[in-house]
Design goal:
Elements lengths: L2 H4 L3 H17 L4 H32 L12
Helix pairs in contact: 2-3
Length: about 70
């Protein structure tokens, strides 16, 4: 992830990822631009997933382990 992306909030990362997806869907990027955008999108996705996992873990700790992880929910 770029230094700038590392300092972004969750919401800013999500907005940046949405922008990347929109640009790629428009189909107006060169192959090189598409590859670079895909790489940045994957970095943002990993950072978003990590932050969500940390938030879920924190919520479970606050609830004393009573909360069922989303992947285990019916």
């Amino acid at each position: 992830m770029t230094d700038m992306a590392a300092q972004m909030t969750f919401e800013e990362r999500l907005k940046a990822l949405d922008g990347i997806v929109a640009r790629m869907e428009a189909g107006e990027m060169t192959l090189q631009e598409s590859l670079a955008a895909y790489e940045e999108g994957m970095k943002l996705t990993r950072a978003l997933n990590e932050e969500l996992s940390q938030a879920e873990k924190h919520m479970q700790e606050l609830a004393g382990g009573v909360i069922t992880p989303m992947e285990d929910a019916p």
